[in-house]
From TrEMBL:
Subunit details: Homodimer.
Keywords tagged on the record: Aminoacyl-tRNA synthetase, ATP-binding, Cytoplasm, Ligase, Nucleotide-binding, Protein biosynthesis
Record protein name field: Aspartate--tRNA ligase
Record-listed L-aspartate binding positions: 163, 207, 355, 359
Ranges for region Aspartate: 185-188
Protein EC: 6.1.1.12
Compartment annotation: Cytoplasm
An example molecular function term from Gene Ontology annotations: transferase activity
Family, per entry: Belongs to the class-II aminoacyl-tRNA synthetase family. Type 2 subfamily.
A Gene Ontology cellular-component term: aminoacyl-tRNA synthetase multienzyme complex
Length: 429
């Protein structure tokens, strides 16, 4: 027989079906046993005569196959149940479970959850996180495809770091050293210049940062885009605002059941996302919260406070900070005067989720800015040579997938929104 998924069983009332899944919960009575079965689509109550399972090892989380008839029934899960005719173990659970999957909440700490990742992902709340994350990625792709972007896939083994500095992982590449890519930045710009004009990528990036905080990962998923023929960074912010609204609408519409399981409230954007210059934000923090000592960049406390200001005074949980100092932005960032840049960050619920801006498109200016940043242009010739042959004005952004997922769902620790996190101490599973 063809396997029927649990969420389709209401179409098979009084019909014989075959289902497959995991044993989620068992309640044994004198003559019958109630067994809750779980597959990727939900839970169903199955009623089996004890004679059918007296010699069967029915342990929690064992994989089973059930043949039975779908009957009307009032129970806490559905308006139907399965009267079991044949019960078979496909693969039995052979050890005591380190995590109790059938409880409403996983009553374990985060390390235990991550050390037993394949089990913790079976819990409906943990599983729901990554169903929402999948909707976010789908929304990113769908929106950009509708805007005539082309999806690209760029190398993760590179000869030089896109962001400069030392925060790169070295790897042995035959008889020489290479690095794990910090960003697809160079390749995005090259593809704009190659005539695609509008490109995006969803891919892994690597940062050899020593941080071990609840907001950092050393390997994460970056949702990048780059677009040609812009006027300045405002075009990029306008595009991202439409993109974020599209993603949030999609999450609410398609992730309703998952949001209900997680009991979270998705942030909303009533009108426009407020935009404040970085220098103005520094003044606001000092005036409103007596926050001082910020030079060139926001610290975690500053990000939380400016988001608090945005929510309370500007009625939006998102906020764009613009015109970051030139000394703190990468060498490809378009200067704005001598001290600022045509760049921005988008913050949500106390943390930066996006960095973006206009890029330098003139070859000589790019070389000059590299020298200003203390970099040797000769080390970047495979990148800079592309700017000799007609590069249009362009810009782009990068959204951290785990960060935006965590903030939409209201998590403080980014690891909760990472399927298999890699941080300062974790390389397994």
């Amino acid at each position: 027989m063809k396997r029927i998924m649990i969420n389709e069983l209401n179409n098979y009332i009084n019909e014989k079906v075959q289902i497959k899944g995991w044993i989620h919960r068992i309640r044994k009575l004198k003559a019958i046993t109630f067994i809750i079965i779980r597959d990727r689509t939900g839970l169903v109550q199955c009623v089996v005569n004890n004679k059918e399972i007296n010699n069967v090892d029915t342990k929690l989380e064992s994989v089973v196959e059930i043949l039975g008839t779908v009957l009307d029934s009032k129970n806490i899960l559905n308006s139907f149940e399965i009267s079991v005719e044949k019960f078979s173990i496909i693969n039995s659970s052979i050890e005591e479970l380190p995590i109790e999957i059938n409880k409403q909440n996983l009553e374990v700490n985060l390390d235990t959850m991550l050390n037993n990742r394949m089990l913790s992902l079976r819990h409906e709340k943990v599983n729901a996180i990554f169903k929402i994350q999948n909707i976010i990625v789908e929304g990113f792709r769908e929106f950009l495809n509708n805007e005539d972007f082309t999806e690209i896939s760029t190398p993760k083994l590179v000869e030089e770091g896109a962001e400069g500095g030392t925060e790169v992982f070295k790897v042995q590449y035959f008889d020489r050293e290479a690095y794990l890519a910090q960003s697809p930045q160079f390749y995005k710009q090259m593809m704009v210049g190659a005539g695609f004009e509008r490109v995006f990528e969803v891919g892994h990036v690597y940062r050899a940062e020593e941080h071990n905080t609840n907001r950092h990962l050393n390997e994460y998923i970056s949702m990048d885009l780059e677009i040609g023929f812009i006027e300045d960074e405002k075009d990029i912010m306008d595009l991202e605002e439409k993109l974020i609204k599209f993603i949030l609408k999609k999450v609410i519409a398609e992730g309703k059941s998952h949001l209900e399981i997680l009991k979270v409230e998705v942030p909303s954007i009533k009108n426009k996302i407020p935009r404040i210059k970085f220098s103005e934000a520094i003044e606001i923090l000092e005036k409103e919260y007596n926050k001082t000592g910020l030079e060139g960049d926001m610290d975690p406390e500053g990000e939380k406070l400016i988001c608090k200001y945005a929510k309370e005074k500007l009625e939006c949980e998102f906020i764009f900070l613009t015109h970051y100092p030139r000394k703190k932005r990468p060498m490809y960032t378009m200067p704005c005067g001598s001290l600022e840049t045509h760049s921005f960050d988008l913050l949500l619920r106390g943390i930066e989720i996006t960095t973006g801006g206009q890029r330098i498109h003139e070859h000589n200016m790019l070389i000059e800015n590299m020298r200003y940043k203390g970099l040797n242009p000769k080390n970047y010739e495979s990148y800079t040579s592309n700017f000799k042959y007609g590069m249009p004005p362009h810009g782009g952004l990068a959204i951290g997938l785990e960060r935006i997922t965590a903030k939409i769902l209201g998590f403080e620790n980014i690891r909760e929104a990472s399927l298999l996190p890699r941080d300062r101490t974790r390389l397994i599973p």
